[in-house]
Design a protein that fits this description.
This protein has 232 residues and is an alpha/beta fold. The protein contains 6 helices and 9 strands, in the order H-E-E-H-E-H-E-H-E-E-H-E-H-E-E. The protein has a 7-stranded mixed β-sheet with strand order 5-4-3-6-7-9-8, covered by helices on one side. Strands 1-2 form a two-stranded antiparallel sheet.
Length: 232
């Protein structure tokens, strides 16, 4: 755990340096103006890893779909979905700064039709009445106590957020709808495996990708994404 906290301290220091820059960061074909309290997509490539596999899924077209980007951060996955033709994308995060940052990034990247976009600050699912065709969730992965703000992008005590997502996503999906749930191998994977087995959704896909830091002293980790479906 000491090593994990040290790694987060390094990450937050890098985040501070990036956020102090005056020019937007360009990545994945989008330009991001970063808030200091929102994790930069240049520090966590998980969003692009998930978005690329989601859009490449041969059994799914996003055209005409309603999508929820749950834990949206700076908005990178939701922006991918808009570009791929999603009819509507809801961006939601527990961190108000993330939601405000995602809104700015949606606007600055040319998605000016707000009939296609909704934004919520919420702990968990933002609107119980809404049904989605696709839910994407790039979950925080370290089982550790957290303060409000940017730490919530990395820390999830006892994986309670993942528990909420995996147990309740089916209530927010249309029949045949899919949850794309991603996490790092540095999570407590025994807990995640148990939560997956308890989920009412059916696993229909799995992807992983090894990620190595430029710092040879830091541990490599594997990005993992499960595709889960609500059966009709």
């Amino acid at each position: 755990m000491v090593q994990e906290i040290s790694e987060v301290a390094k990450l937050l220091e890098e985040q501070r340096k990036i956020a102090l820059g005056q020019e937007p960061v360009e990545i994945y074909g989008f330009k991001f103006k970063l808030d200091p309290q929102v994790l930069s997509p240049t520090l966590s490539r998980s969003g692009a890893f998930m978005a690329n596999h989601l859009i490449a899924d041969q059994n799914l077209s996003l055209k005409g779909k309603r999508v929820l980007d749950l834990g949206c951060g700076s908005g990178v996955i939701g922006l991918h979905c808009l570009r791929a033709g999603a009819d509507h994308v809801t961006f939601s995060d527990i961190n108000r700064a993330a939601v405000e940052n995602a809104q700015k990034n949606v606007h600055s990247n040319g998605f000016l039709d707000y009939s296609r976009v909704a934004l919520f600050t919420a702990d968990g699912f933002p609107n119980k009445a809404h049904k989605y065709d696709v839910i994407v969730c790039n979950a925080p992965f370290w089982d550790h106590a957290t303060h409000a703000g940017i730490e919530q992008a990395a820390f999830d005590p006892a994986h309670q957020f993942s528990k909420i997502v995996l147990q309740n996503a089916g209530e927010h999906l249309s029949p045949g709808g899919r949850l794309y749930y991603g996490i790092s191998s540095q999570a407590n994977l025994d807990t995640i495996d148990r939560l997956l087995k308890q989920s009412p959704l059916t696993q229909v896909g799995y992807y992983e990708q090894l990620s190595r830091s430029a710092d040879a002293n830091e541990r490599p980790h594997t990005r993992i994404m499960w595709v889960l479906e609500r059966k009709r």
